[in-house]
Design goal:
Layout: H1 6-20, E1 22-24, H2 26-36, H3 40-44, H4 54-68, E2 72-73, E3 79-82, H5 84-89, H6 96-107, H7 116-119, H8 128-152, H9 156-169, E4 180-182, E5 193-196, E6 204-210, E7 217-218, H10 220-232, E8 237-242, E9 245-246, H11 248-256, E10 262-266, H12 268-277, H13 295-299
Parallel strand pairs: 6-8, 7-9, 8-10
Antiparallel strand pairs: 1-3, 2-3, 4-5, 5-6
């Protein structure tokens, strides 16, 4: 089951409040999950960033938007109830998202209210947090292509040095001095680089790097030759890295090797992701800091019994 977007949660959440009066945020989760037919796995699914459960977060944003639009009230901190405006809007629920868009637009400084027919586009199905993640992902994807294009503009020798540096940055070779070596062009035996895994060099990872244009795939024959080179080098660990991709025959052959030889294939997409994640040849352009209330800090303060919490 697909987890509903926050704009899809609004009306069921408002109806729930109209039936039950006042509810805490966590009390929305179970009945809304039942309404949408979510499984336990759906309910507990988290963002890839690890910043909380997706469904719970979307409920929170749905309530937040409705609160800003005046459809519900918060008589006490963490408590929600439907407002008179919310009750009135439930008589025409299909217009609720447009109503929220209009009310939200009114609160924006220097932003004129647009016609209702256009305002529906302002009601995003993603929460602001999800929009941020999606934007970051789009930037990452564009950087991946930039990385591959830049690699293709360099020499094959520089590519060999790059992949050796990457594997060391990923932790292979540990703290061993000069653990990564790019082999000489002459008589390299089909091996472009070597990572020593221990001081004595008893354990070694052999590397082959192919700087291919993206339409050109690495075929089975090239993988077989590399496996042969590993045998000559008396090595059972190999990494074949390319800027392009592997043919189905190459992937099938690599997957059919017995346990005596461990062969890892890294295509251009995975290579770009590793370079990005480990910061090889990249700099942090901007850091965005997002803060949330520290519940323990605020809850330790004495409440004013004469006033309702905001």
């Amino acid at each position: 089951m697909t987890i509903p977007k926050h704009d899809e949660i609004r009306i069921p959440a408002l109806l729930l409040l109209s039936e039950r009066g006042q509810l805490k945020l966590r009390e929305f989760e179970a009945p809304l999950a039942k309404h949408f037919g979510l499984t336990e796995e759906d309910i507990h699914e988290e963002y890839e960033s690890g910043n909380g459960k997706i469904f719970y977060d979307r409920i929170s944003w749905a309530l937040s938007y409705m609160n800003m639009a005046g459809l519900l009230n918060k008589p006490k901190r963490g408590i929600y109830e439907i407002s008179d405006v919310g009750i009135k809007q439930l008589t025409n629920p299909e217009k609720i998202n447009d109503f929220i868009a209009i009310e939200f637009a009114k609160k924006q400084k220097n932003k004129p209210v647009k016609p209702t027919i256009q305002l529906s586009t302002m009601v995003e199905s993603l929460t602001p947090q999800e929009e941020l993640y999606a934007s970051a992902e789009k930037i990452r994807e564009s950087r991946y292509q930039e990385i591959i294009d830049t690699i293709l503009s360099k020499t094959p020798r520089e590519f060999e040095r790059l992949v050796v540096s990457l594997l060391q940055k990923m932790g292979y070779g540990g703290e061993i001095k000069n653990a990564g070596v790019v082999t000489s062009y002459t008589n390299d035996g089909g091996i472009d680089g070597i990572i020593k895994e221990d001081v004595l060099g008893l354990g070694r990872i052999h590397i082959q790097a192919k700087r291919y244009a993206q339409p050109n795939t690495v075929g089975r024959e090239e993988i077989q030759k590399f496996v042969g080179a590993l045998a000559v080098a008396q090595s059972n660990k190999g990494v074949f890295i390319t800027t392009s991709s592997f043919s189905s025959g190459a992937l099938g052959y690599a997957g059919s090797l017995n346990g005596a030889t461990t062969l890892i294939l890294i295509d251009g997409q995975q290579l770009a992701e590793y370079l990005y994640d480990y910061g090889v040849g990249l700099q942090v352009e901007q850091t965005i800091e997002i803060k949330r209330l520290d519940s323990e800090f605020w809850d330790s303060m004495e409440n004013d019994a004469s006033k309702s919490d905001l």
